[in-house]
Write a structure and sequence with these properties.
Elements: H1 10-26, H2 33-51, H3 59-62, H4 66-95, H5 101-129, H6 135-147, H7 151-167, H8 171-184, H9 194-207, H10 214-234, H11 237-252, H12 259-274, H13 288-294
Helix pairs in contact: 4-5, 4-6, 5-6, 6-7, 6-8, 7-8, 8-9, 8-10, 9-10, 10-11, 10-12, 11-12
Amino acid sequence: MTEPETHPEAAPQSLETRLAVLEARTAPKPKSPIDHLKEWGGVATLVVALLYTFPLGVWDRFILTPKAREDAERAALRETALTLADIDADYAVRFDGLKSQDTRTFYSRAVSSKKYTIFTKNADAIERYAPTLEAAEIVLFAYTAGQAGRIDLAERLFDAALEKAQAEADVTLVSDIFRLKGALATADPNGIDLDRVRANYSQAVDALKVIGTEGAGLQSSNSYFEWALFEMHFGDWGCGEALRDKALGKISGIQLVSPEIEAYRAQYRQQFMIARQRPGQPAEGCPKDIAARLD
């Protein structure tokens, strides 16, 4: 039997040939213009995606102009003012419908907590933009600041609103701001400043003397009513009685017949019936400058 012929050089040549073929197959091919476009198209898509995602969180900080950012923040504050006004309006409607005193107390605290949270979140922006807001908007924020116990901030905001209202010759708003400043003076943690209470309420009623509308009469009687109660509770009992008579006289003189007026009259009578003179409370009457206003 004849053995097959062997060729010693055939195997190395075959291995080298196969390696050359493999190298040729794995070597990178020259890229056509279409291939380059495909690759850069993918990169461009990624860049566009990033531009529409990551930078959105920092757009307001780095790209918006300062004026645009301020306009946006002021618009947000105005929405906050509307929210607070809606809360107060809803509270007034719902509170009277609650019969249980415990439920009323719980509801009042819940509303106060809600307003406090909203206010404290926006307090810095409120003070920063107060000069650019409307007077009525500033008054709303000042009132909420007082409820939140931020007495100093409330005073500054009321003063800013008062300056605007006086510049606009808005007499009724000027009067209302003085009335609110008078009430705020009773909430001072350092103690009730009776002189400030009297000074602000005096200016509240004096501001309305230049107009004689029914609305001004109601606003004036309400100022006298609040002032009388503060005097009866914290000041001079005799002065409180004189202010009480002034409040009742004012509201009795309003000829307009409406449920609102009747509700105020009933409230006046009820609150004055509840008031009681404290033991040792002075009853010398109002100071001369105030007594002169009551004549």
